[in-house]
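Hey, I'm writing a tutorial for new members on how sequence and structure tokens pair up, and I'd like a real worked example in the thread rather than a made-up one. If someone can provide the structure for the chain below, I'll link this post from the tutorial.
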Amino acid sequence: MTHIVVVVLNYKTPDLSVKAAQSAAAAMGGFRGAIVLVDNDSPDASFQQMQAGVRAATWPDHLEVQVLQSGRNGGFGAGNNFGIRAGLEICPDAEFVYILNPDAQVEPDAIAALVDYLNTHPKAAIAGSWIYGEDGANHCSAFRFPGLASEFEASARIGPMTKLLKKYVLPLHVPAASGPVGWIVGASMLVRTSVLKDIGLFDETFFLYFEETDLCLRAHRAGHEVHFVRESRVCHIGSVSTGMGTWKRTPSYWYESRWYYYSKNYSRAYAMAATILNAIGTTFWRLRRRIEGKPNTDANRFVRDLIAHDVQALFRPIPDASIRAIGLRPEPALQTSLDGS
């Protein structure tokens, strides 16, 4: 029987995290393994609330369910890495690792669809689901990799330019068929354990954003493929933990992640060129918006903050790529939620 480690990373959304884990358990009827809920050092009572929620719920006997405390908030990648390592200690024979957002609900056959797909597509290392919202609207589930052309196209928002650069438009939205893409969102992501042993876990230099893009790029560069799977469907509330949809001003960690992604994977000059093209495109968009009387939907001071951050980053050393190998997890005080020990 196939073994899977499921990781649900919580930050201040304990009730949603338990519900996400329950939906995953319901979709794990044909699989053995572990479900690990990781509290990423939330500054509230999330850990205790998840413990209580897991104790109160009914879980299949064939699954090990634990709630763990990461001990520090190192971001999305670090928290999931902690959960992956812990899960593989519990279930060392797991063929797959499944990353599930705390604000997501898995349809009953969603995990099986991902497993079946990877089993029949040996070149595929990572598979992602068709994501939709509570209202049934499709969310963008798959993307091309970002680059110079995409920076300009996305920021300029000019119809003729988008047609000219259509091969570089980042969102693939919902592809017409299951198949290879650039990268998929980490809300519902199944990864071969063997590939994680090959390319490493999430790069923990990223605090939030671009970490799954980086992981997928590393998979591609190692000769693997990343696929979108239409047959796997997951409901995603979206940005509840991060609050991205309500940003009035883009937080510094987004700029940090973007700069690190480009400078690490391409070069410092490439990263600065991407920033310049983004600033030019945004300037075109703002002029057009004022002429046509369109509303301002951008975060405040975006261009100024982007340029200020990247000019400073240009003169800082690029951090060492903090790609964590699968190994023993750190040793903060850990507790399981089933027995409270």
